[in-house]
Amino acid sequence: MRRWMLNNTVVPAQAGTYNTVPLARHFPILASPKGRRFPPARERHMRVLLATAFFVAGGAQAQQYPARPIRLIVPFAAGGTADVIARSVTNEAGAQFGQPFVLDNRGGANGIIGTDLVAKAPPDGHTLLHVTASFVINPNTYTSLPYDIFRDFEPVSNLVLGTGYLLVLHPAVPANSVKELIALAREGKVSYSSPGVGNTLHLAAELFSVRAGVKLLHVPYKGVAPAMNAVLAGEVQATFIPATIALALVKAGRAKAVAFTGASRFAGLPQLPTMGEAGVPNLELSGSWHGWFTPAKTPSGVVARLHQEVAKAMHVPRVRDAIVAGGYEPDGRSPAEFRKFLRVEYERYAEMVRIAHVPKTAH
Fold first, then answer.
1. pLDDT, tens digit (0-9, with 9 covering 90-100), for 240-281
2. 81-97 and 243-251 are packed helices; what angle lies between their axes, rounded to 10 degrees?
3. Which of 27-41, 106-120, 130-144, 146-160 shows the lowest per-residue confidence on average (mean pLDDT)?
4. Phi and psi of 290, rounded to 5°?
């Protein structure tokens, strides 16, 4: 039995009849006089006209968007990597839209609190989410979440791809290489900070422990910036951190870097060895990505317009330069490509969580 859908109403087509009753029910002006049914050719013509009308209406809605400032929720503490990348993109995209982006930091629970706010926001494109790979990690490290990452969000675009993390130490730590750090860790004298349980930086440190055969003491904080500040203050000895946050501090001598997790050396510190070169095999981590989402059921025209402006902003030289200097690569893939990417990343991080023996915790 054939079925067709209009305004979310599915109506079966009865054998030997045409689908004119549903058309008339939703659009009385299209009703055939005296209850007579339309011939098939005319019905097909009607459907083409209706589809065209919906397409034009959606395009008009996208042209009128945005009608007010856009709220971009960053579900992490202010001053972290997500903040830096979000501001570099929104400064340009806001000028393109003619409406400002208002960044709203809602840190806590590894991004879950802010992410849930977006899941429950009106699907009109005026509330967006800027999130990292924690988006696909959390379902693998928490027993339950107040949202479903594949059901409750519309992917807009992935902004950047990571190239790796720096392993940095407090200057007073008596280790100037990964080999010396491992020796210190075997004496039980190394603690490390992270932005919380189950994020990419936590996973990097736990994988390091597995590959190096040591046990580090984990001290979680509420964001990337607080985790880095803990190293600067000497509260912990080490952390894995994006270059965006640590590079200037390392060059100023306030922290020391001993290795990079990327496939090749970091251009900002070319003398720094990769983990493989430093003697820790099978620890090649490119780092996190950063992407934008809207609530589910946001009109496709609005999502397309958002992607268009994001992709355009990523090609502006000052935006690209800022991203590359921070150890990332500009991306800007389409919503459809981003959706496929998310599925792959979900499975990839599930395997990393398993290898690192990260237990599930309650939210």
1. 999 888 999 999 999 999 999 999 999 999 999 999 999 999
2. 120
3. 27-41
4. -130, 125
Residue 294 and residue 317 in one domain: yes
Q: Are 160 and 331 in contact (CB under 8 A)?
A: yes
User: What percentage of the chain exceeds 70 in pLDDT?
Assistant: 82
Asked if 128 and 275 touch (Cβ cutoff 8 Å), the reply is no
Q: Residue 101: which of 292, 244, 240, 256 has the closest Cα?
A: 292
Q: What is the CATH number of the domain that holds 308?
A: 3.40.190.150
Structural domain range at position 197: 166-260
Residue type, 258: V
Residues 80-96 pLDDT 10s: 889 989 999 999 999 99
Give the count of domains, the chain: 3
Domain shared by 203 and 337, yes or no: no
276 inside domain? no
